[in-house]
Design a protein that fits this description.
4 helices
């Protein structure tokens, strides 16, 4: 999944809004994103689906999302590619994970998909998407940013 360049000024992370692991990951990223590089939207939101549609990507409406998706100036990235690009964007020490891009993708994505398949069982899920605090709302596309 890579293609048309993004026109938005920020890199956008699309996440499964009902997944406890995903919501905790977003909060973890926000704490370490000191330059406010990333913007966020849940994959279930209108903003998330609209952004993907502008890049020609549609998700299966009957399936749970199985990946965090990153949209940046280079296109759309998912699975381990998205995770590594996020780490790279956070600066040191997290950016050191970028060197893992040399591990074959089938290995990285295999591990990623194993965690994704088990995330609800291990971490649980919510009935509704996590809502950001008023201070963080501007960083979420579906909250008026």
């Amino acid at each position: 999944m890579t293609d048309p360049p993004q026109t938005a000024p920020h890199t956008v992370i699309l996440f499964d809004g009902v997944c406890n692991l995903c919501s905790a990951s977003v909060q973890w990223i926000i704490e370490r994103d000191t330059t406010a590089t990333f913007r966020f939207a849940s994959l279930q939101s209108e903003a998330g689906t609209a952004l993907l549609a502008t890049h020609g990507v549609t998700l299966n409406a009957n399936a749970d999302p199985d990946s965090v998706i990153l949209v940046d100036h280079e296109g759309v990235h998912e699975h381990s590619d998205a995770a590594l690009r996020i780490a790279h964007g956070l600066g040191r020490p997290w950016s050191l994970a970028w060197s893992l891009r040399f591990v074959p993708r089938f290995v990285r994505d295999g591990l990623y998909r194993w965690v994704a398949r088990n995330r609800y069982r291990w971490f649980g899920r919510k009935d509704a998407c996590w809502l950001p605090t008023p201070d963080l709302r501007a960083r979420f596309l579906d909250q008026g940013a």
